[in-house]
Design a protein that fits this description.
The chain is mainly α. It has helices at 2-27, 33-46, 52-73, 79-83, 86-110, 115-137, 144-169, 176-186, 190-197, 202-217, 219-233, 246-260, 265-288, 292-296, 301-324. It is globular, with a radius of gyration of 19 Å.
Length: 325
């Protein structure tokens, strides 16, 4: 009975955090729900509203919800949409991701940051913001403070991009389609991409969404590669464990089902809502397990890395857009 009561309290914490964030997002659509849920969890834990076993169980539930959310994210991707970009633009997307990821990790080492924090920031800025950070959290040995810092940085820079990139469209001489491609290749979360590209109209928005979802597709090989590297470094004296996490395989299966066209549109809408709910609740749980005092001890270097990574991804993406016309 005590265990059941504990589980119910932990679920209530995650549900309240997710529900509050989604309500605010519904009233103010420009405000993304993921960082809001994280903030609600942070407030609940650091104001003394949550303690002990409730927090610990909330973190474990958050891990499971993260995996579910990443699998459901796959239903938003169809291989046909990606193929429409053509070889040149596909190559640009791949180069943007690789250069940003490798460059951010290198900068993180130069700044003296931990390997897990550098990896999380690199994944968030190069691929898909909070979703990529959530996926890699299950692979790298990162704590809640590092996850919170990384999500905070992609939220900050993505919000700045919504304001800064539209101002630069005319001075940089970008057509609406080129601006959309630049937004999709350089802005972090999908919601931030939509907010940025929509300022230039429907042509820009359509280009941005396709490019962005192509970046999201690279989440699977990134997580699988990092998981394989981690398993090679770890000693596994007995048993067998696949180097590719099951949630990554689920992500790929979801993409295949969406591409095959066997999932009805009404079901896809439900799955999309479930994905948002799962990831939002998970981030509330991560926030609830974060100690702000420990987060503060990370210092200003993560902020510097985030700004440098943002500049890197925007510059490489802009060069790619110019090269592909």
């Amino acid at each position: 009975m005590a265990r059941r009561s504990l589980v119910l309290r932990a679920l209530a914490v995650l549900g309240l955090g997710a529900g509050s964030a989604l309500v605010v997002h519904r009233v103010f659509p420009s405000v993304p729900p993921f960082p809001l849920a994280l903030a609600f969890g942070l407030a609940a834990a650091n104001l003394g509203l949550l303690r002990g076993q409730t927090v610990a169980l909330g973190r474990r539930l958050a891990d499971r919800l993260l995996r579910v959310g990443i699998v459901l994210l796959g239903f938003e991707l169809a291989a046909g949409d990606v193929a429409e970009l053509g070889p040149a633009r596909l190559a640009v997307v791949a180069v943007v991701v690789l250069v940003t990821f490798a460059g951010t990790r290198w900068l993180g080492r130069r700044l003296g940051l931990s390997a897990p924090l550098s990896l999380l920031i690199a994944a968030g800025f190069s691929i898909c913001g909070a979703s990529a950070i959530a996926a890699l959290r299950n692979v790298v040995d990162a704590d809640e403070e590092e996850v919170t810092a990384a999500i905070g940085l992609v939220t900050l820079c993505g919000t700045l991009a919504i304001v800064v990139l539209p101002v630069l469209q005319s001075p940089l001489g970008l057509s609406d389609e080129a601006f959309g491609s630049w937004s999709g290749a350089s802005v972090h979360d999908v919601a931030q991409v939509v907010a940025t590209a929509s300022t230039a109209g429907p042509v820009a928005l359509a280009a941005a969404v396709v490019v962005k979802l192509t970046r999201v597709l690279l989440l699977a090989p990134l997580v699988a590669g990092m998981s394989f590297a981690s398993s090679r470094r770890s000693a596994r004296p007995r048993g067998f464990s696949s180097p590719v996490p099951l949630f990554v395989l689920g992500f790929l299966v979801a993409i295949a089902l969406r591409t095959a066209g066997i999932v009805p549109e009404a079901v896809l809408d439900v799955l999309g809502s479930a994905k948002t709910l799962a990831l939002t609740a998970a981030l509330a749980g991560i926030g609830a397990g974060t100690d702000l005092r420990r987060l503060g001890r990370l210092g200003a270097r993560p902020l510097l890395l985030g700004l440098l990574s943002w500049a890197l991804v925007a510059s490489v993406a802009y060069a790619g857009v110019l090269l592909t016309g």
